[in-house]
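This protein record is not my work; I was only asked to verify it. The record follows directly below this note.
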Amino acid sequence: MRKYRDIGFKLTPQRIAILDYLEGNRQHPSAEEIYGAVLKKFSTLSLATVYTTLTALKVRGRIVELTIDPSKKRYDPQAGSHNHLICVSCKRIIDIPPVRSLELLESVKQEFTLINAHVEFYGLCPKCTAKTPLQKTNQGGSRCA
């Protein structure tokens, strides 16, 4: 509990369980996945508590809300600078180091002050690649079968 002392909101046993589940989690879980995992320990947990806790953590900069999948938001407890690689088939998300070679156009720099950046890469994970092999196109590029 001491490790969460500076979190800035009331720490209930349910919220501590949510924080414990998120700590070190690299799976980018949805609120429903977090709820399902923590519900095993706290049968009285509500999905509303999960959403309230996630919102409070997001506002405090402790997690990042990902809207990569339009059907469900995912949450990344690693709030530091990094990007994501997303499987277009199974929607698995992995963290990758930040890409430093991208630069904004000078015209954009004049109009906006950049405060943050996030780059998303899309592909097929090894499991989905094995199910859906890539085929060469006539132009030498690749496309899904």
About this structure: Strands lie at 64-66, 74-76, 83-87, 93-96, 120-123, 134-136, 142-144. The radius of gyration is 19 Å. The first strand starts at residue 64 and ends at 66.
